[in-house]
Amino acid sequence: MARALLARLGQTVLVLFGISVLVFLVFFATPGADPTARIAGRNASPETMAAVRHAYGFDRPLPVQYLRLMDSLFVTRDLASFVDHGEKVVPEVMQAAPVTLSLVGGAAVVWIVASIAMGTVAAATRGSVLDRSLMMLGLVGISMPVFWLGEVANLVTQSRYHDTWLFSWVPGLGYVKLHEDPLGWFRHLVIPWCVLAVLFIGIYGRVLRADLVAASGEDFMRTARAKGLTETRVLLRHGLRTSLVTFVSLFGLDFAQLVGGGALLTEVVFGLQGVGRLTYQGLINLDLPLIMATVMYSAIFVVLANAVVDLVYLVLDPRVRDGR
Length: 324
Prior knowledge:
By secondary structure, the chain is mostly helical. It contains 14 helices and no strands. The longest helix is centred in the N-terminal third of the chain and has 36 residues, at about 90-125. It starts with a helix and ends with a helix.
């Protein structure tokens, strides 16, 4: 077990190293990507360009530039923006991360609970009107763009019906820190949670339902029924646990992608200054240090999520533990 964990840790480090090198080469070593002109400003003299290039180390070999950038990003954490001169990018990412984590974490709870309930009920009543209705609702949720649904939610809760008893409790757009006002934090995020979760409820509910239906004909399910267990217990105790393997795999990738900036549209619609919005601003301004910081932040979450998924596999599927 310890050897497997060490091997996984080594793979994680290698993947992060490869991502950092790739991102560095794309943004700093690609022909025409020299950031000197953006730092020096328009119509800068050759002398100014040379001075800036020397001050930022752009005249040094690429391996030296890479090591300096990684040192500034992970060790000293004093990497400064090329656009907002003197503004440190790591604190910006650390300030935006709790916003994105709060948004995605709450939405994940909503879509996990709702999709498990939807998929399980649909599988237990497969072929019925309820089954078809739930799958149709899931398909509708998948089909609705998150930015459109968010704007509709804002129109209903912030404008048209805000003064009614139903939505008078909904605060204005923005974010409140959890430790400052827990109730305000919840009230600001509960609508964004539901909007972001709608798409994933439809996807995960349909996937889980398909896996449960496929598992119902397996030998271990028939053996459980032969032992006299009720259909509900067979479905929940045996079928659901096996079917969650695919569910967990999807969740690990989607959660990491959203935390890494994939929730951009939801953040924009609801005025949340999260990592996705920060990355978008970096891309618009071509702020290479900010882009590098947000990409590495996203990569770390994706790699760690995959490592956690592998560990959860060991719990859900005994065949993985046995090496089969």
